[in-house]
Amino acid sequence: MTEYSEETEARRARFDELRSGFTASVSHELRTPLARILALLDNAELPGADVHGLIDRARAEVENAGALIDEILFLSELESGREVVSLGHTIALPVLESVLEEFADAAARAGVTLAAEGDADVEVPLRPRMLRIVAKNLAENAIRYAGHGAHFTLSVRRAGEFAVLTAADDGAGVPEATLPRLFERFYRTDAARTSRGTGLGLAIVKHIVVAAGGEVEAHGSRGRGLHIRATFPG
User: Fold this and answer.
1) Cα dist. 43→39, 65, 225 in Å?
2) pTM surpassing 0.70?
């Protein structure tokens, strides 16, 4: 009984620590766009201010805060088990192609070219909605950070008993030392800190892949692009 009580208390203490850390991170991330909005509104009151331009920037900050809240809630649902990740299998390539078509305009503005390729009959153990979320977060990450002139490819292939989904770009990359942290919630590299990303995209990717019984890893280095590889059981 004593051992059980001690183990239960230790588990509860770890959970409380994680919850406190997550709450602190969420509070910090939400304060940032709110502080920017207040600054923009204050500037709008100054003589000669470009009111319309400042309002447009404030609107963008509100949209960013809304996206952050949506992703926090979605990740919370994933972690609590309320979102079922793996129900049946989905042929992957048509979904990848559809997602990249959706991001064609955003990629063109960023100067990033997109491509989807792979084996047409490969299935992954995800619902179509979950596969789309994975693909969208991977594409958004590349469009946002790879840099002008980069090429991004989403591919899916069969490797023995496994299905392998790869997101690869030849862009700016990240320092090798940061690779293990890319899937942490709210983690951003130095280059990413200046963007309006939520810092949750790759954390969501990892959670979905792992919940479906897969593994995900990142490879690359600064100036040599980023490759993210998700491996699913057949």
Assistant:
1) 6, 20, 38
2) no
Name 121's Cβ contacts closer than 8 Å, sequence gap at least 6: 91
CA distance 35 to 64: 13
Q: Which residues lie closer than 8 Å to 144 by C-beta, 6 or more apart?
A: 110, 192, 195, 197
What torsion, rounded to 10 degrees, do the Cα atoms 65, 97, 192, 35 define? -10
Site of tokens 């069969």: 158
Whether pLDDT at 138 is above 90: yes
Question: How many degrees, rounded to 5, is the angle at CA 217 between CA 215 and CA 222?
Answer: 170
pLDDT in tens, 156-208: 999 999 999 999 999 999 988 888 888 887 666 544 444 455 567 898 899 88
